[in-house]
Amino acid sequence: MTYYTQVAIADHLSLPSTFTVDECLDFPMSSLEYNFTLLKYCGIWCPLEWPLGWKTRFYSSYTAIVVIVVFSMSLAEMIETLLSLGNIEEFAEGMFMLLTLISCCGKVLTLLVYRKRIILLFETFKCPVCQTSNPQEAAVRKTTRIDGFICVMLTTMMLMTLRYCATSIPHRIIPLKIWLPFNVDTEKVYWLVFFGEFFSLFFAGIIDIAYATLVPTFMSSICEQFGLLECRIQLFIMSIENSKNSQKDRIEFEKKRFADFIQHHLLLFQFASEANDIFGPALLIQYISSITVICMCIYQLGQLTSVNIQLVSTLLYTCRIFFEIFLLCLAGTELTEAMKAMLDMSYLDNNDVRMNSFRLTINFSVE
What we know:
One of its GO terms (molecular function) is olfactory receptor activity. By secondary structure, the protein is mostly helical. The protein has helices spanning 3-12, 33-41, 54-83, 88-113, 115-124, 135-138, 147-168, 187-212, 214-242, 247-303, 309-345, 353-366.
């Protein structure tokens, strides 16, 4: 490495790694507010502003109830699906909801087990190097609108609920075929099982909706930071070309800016790596289950011969799964393009030896 890079790293580079959860109690949720509001009401995300006390203990009990209901329903559905392997229609109907419930269980575990690490991801973007400092940088920021998608998903969930109620209650059958160690012949037992399934599907649906846009929004935040870094490089190039300061002042200014660029760049790679470790396994389960559910939905659509609430709800659910996968692919593509644009920016037609130092440093950090 050249003189400028060595001095920049030695004098100025210090990556944040000592955040504590207590310091994160007021992190801004911005575009993720909808997601964490839904998760809060479902018992999966205890509000950070709540101090330790009776509220948090009560919320922990609420969380335990939700987890038990969702996981027990998933287990009962899995047993019943395995017992129906001889009937393709019953197996397809069982797999239709089983994979969704399994994916939801993976998402619940991710949010509960990695809660502290998720909070620290938010805190990463509170570093001074990730904040805007002038109107040009502020113009790079964008707000990801997810409320419309959440409304569509909630509408789909409501139609699915109406479908199950309309086809189950008049005939006194439970909405989902699950394995039970007892009969549901009596009225009290039927309604107990019915509401148990209803609440498990309700919580699973809300959690799935909240999680569906969580990861793409995280990825959009990284794209925004790459755009911010690109903007800073452009402004830096303009400033050194038009600078009238002394040689000593220019060198000090350039050393500091190089250090900021390197810190910001490495911080983004740390953030991306941490987010991949946290959300990667759940995303793999979600992708596999979504592809399989789409196949099951298409099979079910082929069995319907008339337009009814079952056709509409199944069609909307299929479109929702398609769009959920599309959001992940779109966010991944935007992130790849943002990284490429930032790297291309460091190779502008500028042969200044100091910019060459920065290029070498960027390449070294990427490798």
